[in-house]
Every structure is written in structure tokens, then in C-alpha cells.
Design brief:
The chain contains 9 helices and 11 strands. It is α/β, with parallel strands linked by helices. Bound molecules: uridine-5'-diphosphate. The site of uridine-5'-diphosphate has 24 residues, from helix 3, helix 4 and helix 6.
């Protein structure tokens, strides 16, 4: 094969290395709290199909289905303590996803921003890159490792560190709207947005620090529905339904 020829399976890929950000709530299903095994399995099936296409994949999973620092703070707890509890919750979700992916034959590693050697690897950037090159799905746990941040920011940070082509934000709807389409009839859907639009219009997609970080590192954010079967695989092949947030073409 000549140097300028592309290996056939890679030809169909628009994005070769991506980070998928899932909220903890995506794994909760109809429950009020915790993990729904059917939802974990459904999301893992989507991840598996993208992995089989040859995409290098990282995951960041939130912890909102178990604990959020702000809700602890609202109940009188010190915010930082609550945030550490939230970060531990993300590791629980990461382990659940790892278990389900490995059951399906997908090789994975969990790396945590808070060291817990008996449970998973510590976050080591170069090691994570090596895992990706070897075709392992890397699941980043414990967010950024710092209180007062969110897993959205952790996702933008890790996507930047891993040199990802895109940050995919899985939601319950098929893109970014100007209001919650589940509540507001006639809410308008955006096809494409500039990072600045998201910030100035205060669109509730990702928090501002995550959007700023993605903007600085020129990583497009694609917002799509994780409930759309095959939607994730479509997107990495340049198809599917999503809103893209990127620099406006000058
Ligand atoms: N968190 C944190 N630092 C981080 C990431 C997360 O303190 O870098 C804590 C924070 O308390 C947050 C909780 O972990 O509320 C769960 O993360 P997040 O709310 O982002 O989860 P999601 O909404 O995506 O399920």
C-alpha cells in the first residue's frame, strides 16, 4: 500500500479519535438514582459498535446519577467535600461501563484523576495515549481531580490532552435547542453554532469552562442523542443528526 493510500476501514471515518461525554443520568434510565443495567448495556453497545469501526475512543462519564457536589452543599455540606464525593461517583460509573464493555469483548482501561491503585490506573497522559494506540477504550474517572469543576470540563480537558478530533456530548435530545424541547413546544434546534454563540446566549449544553477549553484547542463539540440507536456510529462516519459547535467559517 502506497504512503498516500488510506487503509480501507479508515476511509469511512470522519473522526478517528474521539471523546464521548456521557452524563451519569444517561445511565440511570427510568430510575430516580443509580445505575440501570439495561441503560449501561445499551450505551455500551453504541460504544462497542464505534470501537469496531476502528475509532480510538475515550469516555468521560459524569456522576450526577449518584451524587453532585452542589446538592451536598445545598444540604449544608462543605462544597469541596461534596465535590470529592461526586468525583468518586464518576469512578463507580466508569467501573460499571468498563465491566459491560469487557463483557462484550472490548478491551478497556479506567484511569482515575484521584489515585486508587487497587481499583484502576492513575491518570497518566502518555500511558492513556498508548492505550488508545493499542485500541483500548480509555475511561477517565474522577473528573479533573479538582473540586469546583464538572465532568464537562474534564471531558474538554482530556479531549485536548489526548488530541481528539472531536468531543461528542451525548444528551437526551438530537442537538442544541434554544429551550428544552421536552418542555417548550416549538423550541428551535441549531444545526451549527460558534463557540461564542453558546457562551453569549448561555445555551445549556456544556458549562462555559468546557466550551472555552474546546474553543482554545479547536476541538469541535458534537451534541447528539444517545437514545438514537446507531447514532454514535453514524456521527464518526460523517453522517447522523447532531448540532456541531465549532469556529465559524470566516
Ligand atoms: N466533580 C468535581 N470535579 C470534577 C468533576 C466532577 O468536583 O472535575 C464533582 C462535582 O461535584 C459534580 C460531580 O462530581 O457535581 C458529578 O459530576 P457532573 O455533575 O459533571 O456529572 P453529570 O452531570 O455529567 O452526571
Amino acid at each position: 500500500m502506497g504512503a498516500d493510500e488510506v487503509y480501507e476501514p479508515l476511509r469511512i471515518l470522519k473522526y478517528r479519535r474521539v471523546l464521548l461525554k456521557l452524563s451519569g443520568e444517561a445511565l440511570m434510565g427510568e430510575r430516580e438514582y443509580g445505575l440501570d443495567p439495561d441503560m449501561v448495556s445499551r450505551v455500551a453497545a453504541e460504544v462497542e459498535s464505534v470501537h469496531r469501526l476502528g475509532v480510538e475512543l475515550c469516555l468521560v462519564i459524569g456522576g450526577g446519577n449518584i451524587f453532585r457536589g452542589v446538592s451536598g452543599a445545598a444540604a449544608g455540606m462543605e462544597r469541596a467535600s461534596g465535590d470529592y464525593m461526586g468525583m468518586l461517583a464518576t469512578v463507580i460509573n466508569a467501573l460499571a461501563m468498563q465491566n459491560e464493555l469487557e463483557r462484550r469483548g472490548v478491551s478497556t482501561r479506567v484511569q482515575s484523576a484521584i489515585s486508587m491503585q487497587s481499583v484502576c490506573e492513575p491518570y497518566i497522559r502518555r500511558r492513556a495515549l498508548r492505550h488508545l494506540e493499542k485500541g483500548r477504550v480509555v475511561i477517565f474517572g474522577a473528573g479533573t481531580g479538582n473540586p469546583f469543576f464538572t465532568t464537562d470540563t474534564a471531558a474538554a480537558l482530556r479531549a485536548s490532552e489526548m488530541g481528539c478530533d472531536a468531543l461528542l456530548k451525548a444528551t437526551k435530545v438530537d442537538g442544541v435547542y434554544d429551550a428544552d424541547p421536552h418542555r417548550v413546544a416549538g423550541a428551535m434546534r441549531f444545526e451549527r453554532l460558534d463557540y461564542q454563540d453558546v457562551l453569549t446566549r448561555n445555551l445549556q449544553v456544556m458549562d462555559a469552562s468546557a466550551v472555552s477549553l474546546a474553543r482554545e484547542n479547536r476541538i469541535p463539540i458534537l451534541v447528539f442523542s444517545i437514545f438514537d440507536d446507531g447514532g454514535f456510529a453514524d456521527i464518526v462516519q460523517g453522517k447522523g443528526r447532531y448540532t456541531i459547535i465549532e469556529h465559524a467559517v470566516q
